[in-house]
Each structure stands twice: as structure tokens, then as C-alpha cells.
Amino acid sequence: MFDRVWLNASLATMTGDGLGIVEDGAIATRGEAIAWVGPRAALPGPAAETHDCGGAWILPGLIDCHTHLVFGGDRAAEFERRLGGVSYEQISREGGGILSTVSDTRAADEAALFDAALPRLDALLAEGVTTIEIKSGYGLEVATEARMLRVARALGAAREVTVRTSLLAAHAVPPEFAGRQGDYMRHVIEHILPATADLADAVDGFCDRIGFTAAETDALFQAADALGLRVKLHADQLCDLGGAALAAAHGALSADHLEHSNPGGFAAMAAAGTIAVLLPGAGYFIRETHHPDIAAMRATGVRMALASDINPGSCPARSLLLMLNLGCTLYRLTVAEALRGVTCEAAAALGLADRGRLEAGLRCDLALFRINRPAELCYWIGGNPNAGRVVAGRPA
Ligand code: NIG
Ligand code: FE
């Protein structure tokens, strides 16, 4: 006897190395976990509660493994300047960009940050997201970094979703450390990191020519390693500083962006089990013409995830489904790569071994879609075919 069963559905289980399709399938649960998955005709027993999916498709609950969901203000005025020809990098060098969001975020209290982030979270949940990573990085001081991380966890308590937090204090140099980048990185390592470690599941950094050097990032990662925190990295977004290989050398969960990374970096990531997180929305929105080298990624066998990168500067995108389309259109991902990128590979990018596939024993997080074939999730631009979520075995 099962607790619940979902049937009259097609399944994309993500088992094996493709979509793992089961037509006319069933998923049965006990408690929070999947107890059985397979063709409906082989379902071994009855359930206390039966859900007829009316022919919908079921995927593992979607996982957005890279977001900056919590921030104050917006950067629509900066966007207008960029429309006039000023580049994202130029605005950053003038002291705008990330730092303008830092001043808006420092000025916002916990309730204001929560209220601004909640509708953004709800937009993602409405598309079938059941797990989300949320970074700090717009505080760049203990109090505001901690506030952002507390708000991220409060969002997870307010909604049926798992939130994983990442400390991104090494995102930019705050105004009070202007011209003293090395001193700020020491401040991150000696003060911000120890003071906020309890609120963070991982440590992230921005290694780039408008971010931190490889040596500074290496020092940050050594400090994170010493605290037992896993690391991840915004790597090689605007130029190749060897971020991919650096992340791999620290056994990072993921290296993200990777527009300018070299094939040697991908080989190191593949060997270390570091996931490549692709963020096509950011490439699109800052009009980056240099795309990540997907062919080299495939050749090295590095695993690829796909995420929204929702943030006020480089990607104000309140949609993960849109990233499926952008990943396929801009980067020529296959449908299987894109859909695995927001399910099983995204779970790996967060170090979560209990989800991302439809498989007995895993947590029962599901996303239901009213579509005729999985490719539709990558094909439509706009609109939302989500027909429900299941979180830890319960309809959410
Ligand atoms: O992932 N590259 C650094 N961080 C963000 C953008 C942050 C911002 O512009 O506010 C990103 O693209
Ligand atoms: Fe980011």
C-alpha cells in the first residue's frame, strides 16, 4: 500500500543519460520519497490517494541552481543607459552596476528585501521549480550579507521549496574599500566569511577582470575549505582568468558562466566532478557574443546545468523555462541537455544527491506540465504550461 500515486501521465525520469521516458507511467510514494516509478500497468499495489494527471507530463521538480533572487531596487535606468550604447562593463567601472544594487540593498530592511523577492520566487515556483539556490553578494559587509542570507532562508520557510544559500561577499569591492581590493578580500576571509558561515550552504566568488583575481579567489576558497564549506564560482564571464580550472582544483560544486573558459578548464572540471552551470539569460541580456564552448564541454564530458541567474543587472529574468529556450537557441543545447540541466545536473551543481531524477528512494519533488512532448518546454517562448508541483510527496 502506497501513500499517494500519480498516474495517467508520461514521465521524463532523467535516469540513464537521456530523458528516461516512460509513457503511461505511474509514480507512487511513501512519506516524502518516491517508492516506485514505472509503467502504470506494472504498478505493484494500491495507494491511499490517487491523482489522475489527465495525460500530463511529469518531470523531476525543476531546480534553479544559480540565482541572485534577493536584492534591493532595480537597474532599469542602467538598462536604458546600455540601450544608449554604454556597456555593462563600462557601467561597472564607473562605480555603478553591482555597486548601485549594493547601496539599494544596504538601505532595505529584512521585510523590504523579503517582500521584493517573494513575487520573483513565486514566478519561478509557478513554472515548476521546487529547489532554488539564492546568493548574497549585494551587501559586501557582515550585516547586509547576513540579512540577505536570512531573507533567502525565510523565503524557503514561507513557501514549499528547498532553498540553498551561497555567500557571495566576494562579488565586488564596496565603496569603503575603493582602491584596496586585496584588503577587502582579506576582510571577506577574516570577518564576513566566519560571521556568516552558519547562514551559508556554500561560498561563491566572482573571478573576472571586474571581479577578483585568481590568486584572491584561491585564498577565499582555502578559507572556505578550512570551514568545511563547498565552493562555486562565477568564472570567466567576461575574460579567461583560468576560473574553470581554479574551481576544479578546489573540488567546486560548480563553475558558472564560462563564456571565455578554455578546454583545459573543462577537462579539469570533468575530472573533479565540477558541474558547468550555463547562464544564457545573462549572455543574452548583456549581449555577450562570445558563447561558452559547448563543443569542448561535450568533448571533455563535463556535466552541464542551466540556471536563470536572476539578478537586477545582467539578467532580470523571472523565468527558468525561458532559459531552456535560450540555452537551446543561443548555445544549441539538445532538449535532453537543457532539461537535464534544470533537473539532475542542477541537483548535482548544488550537491543534492536526493533529487533531480524520478527514481525510487529519492525525494518526491515533481513538476507537472500540460504538453504533448518534452521538447515543448524548450520550444515555447512565454506562457506557462505548468500544471502543478509536488514537494516532498505532497501536492504543493
Ligand atoms: O551572475 N557576474 C556577476 N554577477 C552577476 C551579475 C550581478 C549584477 O550585475 O548585479 C551575474 O551575472
Ligand atoms: Fe550570477
TrEMBL record:
Catalysed reactions, as listed in the record: 4-imidazolone-5-propanoate + H2O = N-formimidoyl-L-glutamate
Gene3D superfamilies associated with the record: Metal-dependent hydrolases (3.20.20.140), Urease, subunit C, domain 1 (2.30.40.10)
Cofactor entry: Zn(2+); Fe(3+)
Pathway: Amino-acid degradation; L-histidine degradation into L-glutamate; N-formimidoyl-L-glutamate from L-histidine: step 3/3
Subcellular location: Cytoplasm
Sequence positions that bind N-formimidoyl-L-glutamate: 138, 311, 313
UniProt keywords, alphabetically: Cytoplasm, Histidine metabolism, Hydrolase, Iron, Metal-binding, Zinc
Binding annotation for Fe(3+): 66, 68, 234, 309
GO molecular function: imidazolonepropionase activity; iron ion binding; zinc ion binding
Cofactor descriptive note: Binds 1 zinc or iron ion per subunit.
GO cellular component terms, A-Z: cytoplasm
EC category: hydrolase
Residue positions binding 4-imidazolone-5-propanoate: 75, 138, 171, 237, 314
EC number, UniProt record: 3.5.2.7
Binding site for Zn(2+): 66, 68, 234, 309
Ranges of residues in domain Amidohydrolase-related: 57-369
Principal place of residence: cytoplasm
SUPFAM superfamilies per UniProt: Composite domain of metallo-dependent hydrolases, Metallo-dependent hydrolases
Function: Catalyzes the hydrolytic cleavage of the carbon-nitrogen bond in imidazolone-5-propanoate to yield N-formimidoyl-L-glutamate. It is the third step in the universal histidine degradation pathway.
Family: Belongs to the metallo-dependent hydrolases superfamily. HutI family.
NCBIfam families: hutI
Protein name in UniProt: Imidazolonepropionase
Organism field: Humitalea rosea
Organism lineage string: Bacteria, Pseudomonadati, Pseudomonadota, Alphaproteobacteria, Acetobacterales
